[in-house]
Amino acid sequence: MSKFTLLFLAIAFVASFNSCSKSKNDLLKGSWERVNVENINDIYMYVWEFNNGDLTMKRNPKTDPGSVTITDTGIYVLETNPVGTKLQIIDTSSELYNDRWDVLKLTNEQMIIKLDIEGGVLYKEFVKIF
Predict the structure, then answer these.
(1) Nearest Cα residue to 129 out of 52, 40, 50, 21
(2) pLDDT in tens, 64-120
(3) Cα gap 56→38, rounded to integer Å
(4) Which alpha helices (DSSP H) does 1-130 contain, by range?
(5) pLDDT value of position 2
(6) Which of 37, 47, 78, 122 could bridge 115 with an S-S bond, Cβ 3.0-4.6 Å?
(7) Cα separation values, 55 from 34, 43, 51, 64, Å
(8) Are 73 and 54 a contacting pair, CB within 8 Å?
């Protein structure tokens, strides 16, 4: 195989991951309702909004969805590589969230992230609301 062919294949390989990362960033952008499996009778709906590197966490009463309380803010970076996808969250008031989460699933409708912590695993499921 010629050096030109190897160079072309290397460039194509890198370009494919850059476009994949772009499309995953597009999938992530928007509002996601966190599925509250800890308390299915919770009176609140929890929403995480991802917008160009800014993360806003909100809480809305289910009886009055227009009444919004911002519970936290931070910064995020979506990292995509051949091994997998990571969601880096920083600068929130909760040190628990400030880490590199494994993205297990990211589609137009659903996102699942997990974080290995001492003594267990944090697991968050979301459904896209817009």
Answers:
(1) 50
(2) 988 999 999 999 999 998 889 999 999 999 999 999 999 999 999 999 999 999 999
(3) 21
(4) 3-28
(5) 57
(6) 122
(7) 14, 23, 7, 23
(8) yes
Structure tokens at 125: 């499921």
CA dihedral over 48, 50, 53, 54, signed as positive or negative: negative
**pLDDT (tens digit per residue) in 19-42:** 444 588 899 999 999 998 888 899
Find out whether 86 and 103 touch, Cβ atoms under 8 Å. Answer: yes
For residue 30 the two structure tokens come to: 């928007």
The residues facing 126 across adjacent strands are: 34, 111
Q: Is 32 helix (H, G, I), strand (E, B) or coil?
A: strand
Could you tell me the two tokens for 91?
Answer: 């600068």
In whole angstroms, give the CA distance from residue 125 to residue 110. 7
Residue 44 CB partners (closer than 8 Å, separation 6+):
36, 59, 60, 61, 62
